[in-house]
Amino acid sequence: MIPLGRIKLFLLIFVFLSCGTKIPERPLIQYTFESKSLEQVMSGSAVWSKAHELKYNFGYWKPSVWVKFDLINPDPEVRDCILELEAPWVDSVLLGWEEDGKLVQKQFDGFRSFENREIQHRNPVYRFTLKPLETKTIYARIQNSGILSAPFRVWRLNSFFDRMERDYIANGAYFGIIFALFLYNLLIYVSVRERAYVYYCLYLATLAINYSLLGGFFKQMIFPDLNMSVKPYLYVSVNASLTFVGLFSLTFLNLKNINPFLHRLILLSVAAFGAMAVFSFIIPHNWIEVSFIYTFPYIFLLLMSAGAYSYIKGVKSSLFFLFAWVTLFVGVIFDSLTKASLIPSTTFGRYGVQIGTALEVILFSLALGRRLRFLLEENLLAQGQLTTIKKDLETARKIQMRILPDTVPKNQKLSMVVSYQPLYDVGGDFYDYFEFSEGFGLVIADVTGHGVSAALDSSTVKIAFRNAKEFKESPKDLIGAMNRFLCTSLNARFVSAAYFYIDFKRMKLCFSSAGNPPFILIRNREIESFECPGLLLGVRPNFSYEQKEVSLEKGDRLLFFTDGLYENLRPEEEPETILFPEIQPLVDLRQELFHLNLMNKLSEMRQSSKDDITLVSIDLTKN
C-alpha cells in the first residue's frame, strides 16, 4: 500500500508547480455562423452576435463558427504576445487580421503533423507583435466535428513560456504518478493473481492515453510525424476506460454475490461501452460527445450506488472506492466550470481533471491494498482452519486404522494380502475377520458416500459385525443380524456388504451378500466369479438374506473387493469383462506380486479415483 505521506508530498509538489504566473482573462468575442470567406467577414458583410462574456462554447451540431475579438496594447511600447486556443483536439483554425494594410492569415490543421506548427505547443498558438497603443482585430474560423468552442487566451510572451514550462512539469508529475501506480499494481498482480489488479492497470493505461490525447501530448511527445486526427482514438480510449473501470468495480465490489441486479446492470453497461469503443471510428463525433453528457453522470451515479451498497453490506474497502469517485467528480466539475469561465481561474480549477484523476487512482490503489490485506488475513485464517481440518483428518485416519485389523491372519491354512485405499484421508470401506480353528470368516463392506461421515458410519458397521459374532458360521444369519442393527443405527445411509465363511473341514466357502460385487475364484489358471443377490444393509430390518456355497480346493485364490476397484474404468461393461483380462496374465505369479501388479494395472487404466478401493486376496495353502 502507498504511504499517505508520499501522496501528500506529490500533491504538494503538483500544486506548487502549477502555481505562478497569473492566468489572463479571455478576450470578449463576437460570433457568427455564416458561411463566408475571410475576406467577406473582414469587409463587414457578416452580421455579428455579441457573446455573453462567459460564453465560449457553441454546442455540438454546428460545423464551424466565425469569431472576432480585439488584441489591445495599452502600453506606449511594443508588446510581444501569444494567442492561445485551449483546444488541442480542434479540427482546423483559420486566423486572419490586417497588418499595415495587408491581409495576413495563418492556418492550423489538426490532421497535419506536429512539426508543421508555428510554435511547438500542444494547443494551437500564434505569436503577435503589437505596436504601442495598437488595437488589432482578429478574425478566426473554427471548425470541429464535435463540441464547437473558442477558448482563446492572450498571454504576454514571457508569461506564456513560463506557464508552459510549469504546465509540462505539472503534467509530467501527473503522468509519473499514473505510470508508477501502473507498475506498482502490475507487480502486485504478478504476485497475487487477483483479477481486480488487471482491470485497474488497464484502467490506468487507458486513463493515461485519454489525457495524452485530450491534452495534445500524444502528437507532441509520442507521434509528432502523425498526419491524421487523433480524435477517434480519444473516443476509443475513453470508452475503453469506462469499460475497464466497470470491470474493476464488478470484481472489487463483489456485486455478483451481494447484489446480482447491480452486477447485471453494470455488466450490461460495460458491454455497451465496449461496443461504443469498437464503433467509435464510424459513429459521428458529435453524437459520441453528446453521449458523454449522459454517460458520465450515469456511470458516476451507478458506481457510487454500487460502492455505497457494497459498503453497507460489509465490504469496508468500498469506502475508498466512494471517496475516489467523489474526488474525480469534484475535479471534473471545477475543471469544467473554470474552462467555461463560470468561476475564477484557480490552480485546482485549471488542473481539476488531473488532480481529480490522480486522487481517484491513488484512492483506488489504497482500496486495492486494503482489499489485498483483507484477502491475506482471510487466507491466513483459512490456512489455520485448513491446518486444523488436516489435523482432525489425520486423527480420524488413525482412529479408522484402529477400526481395521492391524495384522493379517496367522493361519497355516491360508495367507491374506489386503489393499485399502480411501478416496480421501478416511473412507467408507471396511473389512474385518473372525479366525478360529475350524474356519475363517471375512466381512467386506462399503458405506455409501465418502470422507469423514462415511468413515464414522464404518465404525458402526464394525460394531454390527462384532455384535453378530455368534452367527460367524452362518453367513445369512450374520448378515441379517448386521442389517437389523444398522437399520436402527444409520441415518439416511446404507451399506453394501458380504460375509464369507471358509469351512476348512468340509472345504466349503459359504457366503451371503447385501449388494456387494461378486467375488472371484482362481483355480488351475481358470477364473470364475460368484455372486449372491441381496438388499443393501440398513433398508429393511426384516429382509431375509440368501446363502450360497462353493467347493474349495487347496491352492485356490479368492479375490474379494468393493466396487471402487473397477468403477470408472469402463462403466458400460460388467465387472467380469473388465477384471478377467487383467487377471489372466497374472495368475501364475505368487500372491504378493499378483496383488501388487493387479492394483497397478487397474490404477493405470483409471483416469481418476471416485470411490474408496478395497481388495482382499486369500490363497488356500497346499500343505
From TrEMBL:
SMART domains: PP2C_SIG. PROSITE patterns: PROKAR_LIPOPROTEIN. Keywords: Hydrolase, Membrane, Transmembrane, Transmembrane helix. The keyword RNA-binding does not apply. GO terms for molecular function: phosphatase activity. The chain crosses the membrane at residues 168-190, 197-218, 233-253, 265-285, 291-312, 319-337. Residues 414-620 form the PPM-type phosphatase domain. This is Serine/threonine protein phosphatase.
